[in-house]
Amino acid sequence: MKTPVPVPGHAKSAGAFSPLQAQKEATFGMGCFWKPSEELLKVDGVIDTVVGYTGVSNYDGPPPTYEKVCFSRDAWVEGVRVVYDDTQVSYNQLLNAFFEAQEPKTGSRQYASVVFAHDPTQEQMAQQWLTENSQRIRNDGVPATFTKIEPLSPFFRAENYHQEYWQKTRPRIAGMIGLMAIGSGVLDQYTPIVGWQSQIHTIANAIVFAGFLYILVERYVDTKVIQL
């Protein structure tokens, strides 16, 4: 019996383990990849998600940047690479989760709904899923017919600030709002240290400024894109 190994990346928890033989990968185009990648992590059996750029077959150029994906004429798709334990969740169940979590935009290649089949088995299962769900429409009007099936193409892990985007952004926003409330003085009546309000305002506002500066610098410094 093989010893379970830890899964690298931003897995569900530091204690996430799975036998190597049970780990499989799937790749989807799901619209803007921030929220769908987080939603798929909530599925039992999904070990990890990575967001990146894919959809250009036989690509042998330098790793694309987010700006290139957004503004070039190349057929890039914002993709989500999923690592899952197929003893806990089947590929067909993953397709259902993909359909419900995606946020595609009609007429947009970048935000297209695509199943990138890793092998003939996945392609066959995806084709069968599309056939069986040809009349399926979500409550928000997104039909299963939006989804296309394409063979797997090179996948590039996006810049780090895109990874776990909402998991990082929500606490940042909450912290910024709290600090701005302190810096504005609206919470002075609840401050127990009378006479220190001015210093507290200054410190809070400085932290907010430093936080915004960090986020801005992060986008220009942490720009490494690698092929997986």
Written account of the structure:
The protein has 228 residues and is α+β, with helices and mostly antiparallel strands. It is built from six helices and nine strands; from the N terminus they run βββαβαβαβαββααβ. It has helices at residues 34-41, 66-71, 91-101, 120-132, 165-184, 197-221, and strands at 5-6, 17-18, 23-30, 46-54, 77-85, 113-117, 148-151, 156-157, 226-227. β6 (113-117), α4 (120-132) and β7 form a beta-alpha-beta unit. α1 packs across α3 (91-101) and α5 (165-184) packs antiparallel against α6 (197-221). The radius of gyration is 21 Å and the shape is elongated. The model is unreliable at 1-10 and 13-18 (pLDDT under 50).
What is the overall silhouette? elongated
- For the largest sheet, list the strands in their spatial order: 7-6-3-5-4-8-9
Uncertain residue segments: 1-10, 13-18
List how many beta strands DSSP finds. Answer: 9
β-strand percent reads: 15-25%
Rg, rounded, reads 21 Å
**Major sheet summary line:** 7 strands, mixed
Q: What distance lies between the first and last C-alpha atoms, to the nearest angstrom?
A: 28 Å
Q: What is the structural class?
A: alpha+beta
Q: What is the helix fraction of residues, given as a range?
A: 25-40%
Instruction: Tell me the number of helical segments per DSSP (H or I, 4 or more residues long).
Output: 6
H/E topology pattern: EEEHEHEHEHEEHHE
Mean pLDDT: 83
